Automatic annotation (TrEMBL):
Taxon lineage: Bacteria, Bacillati, Actinomycetota, Actinomycetes, Pseudonocardiales
GO biological process: base-excision repair
Cofactor(s) essential for the protein: Zn(2+)
UniProt protein name: DNA-(apurinic or apyrimidinic site) lyase
Domain Formamidopyrimidine-DNA glycosylase catalytic span(s) in chain numbering: 2-102
PROSITE patterns, alphabetized: FPG_CAT (PS51068), ZF_FPG_2 (PS51066)
Matches recorded under InterPro entries: FPG_cat, FPG_N, H2TH_FPG, Nei2_N, Ribosomal_uS13-like_H2TH, Znf_DNA_glyclase/AP_lyase, Znf_FPG/IleRS
Family: Belongs to the FPG family.
Amino acid sequence: MPEGDTVFLAGKRMHDALAGKTLLRGELRHPRLATIDLAGLDVLGVRTYGKHMFTHFSDGNSLRSHFRMDGAWHLYRPGERWRRPAHQARAVFEVDDRQAIGFALHDMEFVPTVREDELISHLGPDLLADDFDAAEAVRRLTADPSRPIGIALLDQRVMAGVGNLYRAEVCFLLRVLPTAPVSSVDASRAVALSRKLLQANQWRPEQSTTGDLRVQHYVFERTGRPCLRCRTRVRSGEMDGRFVYFCPKCQSG
């Protein structure tokens, strides 16, 4: 699942490519939205919140798209070959000098722009927002002290933007197992680390939590490889239907 920084960067690139331009082609290839033709509308801008992206149009409506597990927006020059199969395209936007193709966007809604906040009102603070409310994120994180920290970090109602990669890395940096209860963790530090790691990668496609792009992660997807801190082999297991990664020596709880 794409992390919040991936969605943020995709939104910024979409905004730079489309904002202020008129759509020459605007197709939504979704059963509920297939009759909507956006050609002729101006793109006013693109914004993101957590893992949600909103594209604003001059008719007063917005398209919300969510990447889920395998969704993505790609930008192409006219005539450039798409890097994914055409049958996966769920949105096709074309302006004079660029194409924006939304692939595998299972979750799309077309709503009045004034109502788009209703779609994300249940979410916690956006970790990449300029006005991020850390105190509110801590309050939500600690609302259930017995909850496993690995479950709480992924809950977008706590704070929006953490995915499986950052869950693993935050737990490692906190030196706790993902199964450790929230009550055993410094909640303020967990929130601060989550924001720090996403901010470190929000302007680039590569995601490094170590500060070194040659060895990008401490434990994520490093099963059987030596821990960068103690050289114990990293282990993995399943939690809430997804893999979790941890060092059995460095992490406790």
